[in-house]
Amino acid sequence: MQGMTRRRDKLTDQIRRAINESGVSRYRLWKETGIDQAVLSRFVAGKAGMTLKSLDVLADALGLRIVADRSKRKAR
């Protein structure tokens, strides 16, 4: 489960960076995603996380694709 947490952390960092670089306002993201502006602000500030579902919605609104890189998985 620890690997899942690291992947989610990496994903959240990438989405935070994409939000900051996009220039899209919290208001617009809220209107497009339904994710409250206060929640978005805490997320972008690194003070709160989000569910994978919310991260997926944000990624979609930003025009991002979430891709799992299975080549880095250890063989069992």
The share of residues in helices is 55-70%
The CATH architecture comes to: Orthogonal Bundle
Characterize the overall form.
Answer: globular
Report the radius of gyration as a whole number of Å: 13 Å
The number of strands is: 0
The H/E string reads HHHH
Total tally of structural domains: 1
| Fraction of residues in β-strands | under 5%
Biggest sheet character: none
Low-confidence stretches: none
Briefly, what CATH class?
Mainly Alpha
Straight-line N-to-C gap: 15 Å
Contiguous helical run count = 4
Overall description:
The chain has a single domain (2-69), classed as lambda repressor-like DNA-binding domains (434 Repressor (Amino-terminal Domain)). It is mainly alpha-helical and 76 residues long. The longest helix has 21 residues, at 2-22. The chain has 4 helices and no strands. It is globular and about 35 Å long. 62% of the residues lie in helices and 0% in strands. The two termini are 15 Å apart.
Would you kindly provide a brief summary of this structure?
The protein is mainly α.
Defining key terms:
76 residues; mainly alpha
Secondary-structure map:
Layout: H1 2-22, H2 26-33, H3 37-44, H4 52-61
Helix pairs in contact: 1-4
